[in-house]
Design a protein that fits this description.
Blueprint: E1 5-13, E2 20-25, E3 28-32, H1 41-54, E4 61-65, E5 71-77, H2 81-90
Parallel strand pairs: 1-3
Antiparallel strand pairs: 1-5, 2-3, 4-5
Length: 96
């Protein structure tokens, strides 16, 4: 039996003074990271932040699209969409 997997849409604000999960942005999750959008630093910070919010290892996440865009899609293994959305909602305001 394969583990559940899903994708999350993200709207990212790099270079933020207060990183964290902000809330919904349409059908995406709005996230802020302190890292600048240079050399993949913001992408790494996004994956680390989301992994912490979801309570999964960083290796269970993959940036599927949006490497150079504020709009990103992250694939994750081990959670259903409903569980992922619940955990992201619970992390709003946390500075993970």
């Amino acid at each position: 039996m394969t583990a559940p997997h899903t994708s999350l849409r993200l709207r990212v604000s790099p270079g933020a003074t207060r990183p964290g999960i902000v809330g919904r942005h349409g059908d995406a999750w709005k996230v802020r990271v302190a890292a600048p959008p240079e050399g993949g630093k913001a992408n790494d910070a996004v994956l680390k932040l989301v992994a912490g919010a979801l309570g999964v290892p960083r290796g269970d996440l993959e940036l599927a699209s949006g490497q150079t865009s504020r709009d990103k899609v992250v694939r994750l293994v081990g959670l259903t969409r409903e569980t992922a959305d619940e955990r992201m909602a619970a992390a709003i305001g946390d500075r993970t």
